[in-house]
Design goal:
single chain, about 160 residues, alpha+beta, 5-stranded antiparallel beta sheet, 1 helix, elongated
């Protein structure tokens, strides 16, 4: 009889322990840091001049070497083709700018690759994520031709 009383007292305690462990493990999975977050904006003035503004951040404790560039479905010359290489750390977000002109509508992608390159981060201390090493955001720029050779530029996400 005593054996059954002991068994019934242990079961609720064991169930409570399992429930607590399960809740604790689910919370740990939700707190996974984001490798890279991107904020990409296309700004224009009254002419055909466009400024691309890309902000890059990480929630990882370790630094990594990133290359940032733009890509488009139409050919765009000038500063559009410039590629930046930088060390990205949690406490040091990076911001990149491109100025270019276009006279046609285009889909523009801001691309950030995590690369293995020496002499970028201090003491060459940098990591490369296993899960993904390319991140991108796409925006659309629409240019409508108007009468008298004037253009109107609009930007869509």
């Amino acid at each position: 009889m005593r054996l059954f009383q002991l068994l019934f007292r242990a079961c609720p305690a064991a169930l409570l322990l399992v429930l607590c462990l399960q809740l604790g493990s689910n919370k740990a999975q939700e707190n996974t840091p984001r490798i890279i977050t991107l904020d990409f904006q296309l700004l224009r003035d009254g002419t055909q001049e466009v400024t691309a503004d890309l902000s890059v951040q990480t929630e990882l404790k370790e630094c990594m070497v990133v290359k940032a560039s733009l890509s488009s479905n139409v050919r765009i010359e000038g500063g559009f083709n410039f590629k930046y290489t930088a060390c990205l750390c949690e406490d040091n977000p990076r911001r990149f700018f491109w100025d270019f002109q276009t006279n046609s509508s285009a889909r523009i992608a801001a691309i950030v690759d995590v690369v293995r390159e020496l002499s970028i981060c201090p003491n060459d201390d940098a990591v490369i994520p296993i899960r993904a090493n390319r991140f991108y955001v796409i925006k659309v720029i629409k240019i409508e031709q108007r009468i008298l050779n004037k253009s109107m530029i609009t930007v869509e996400s």
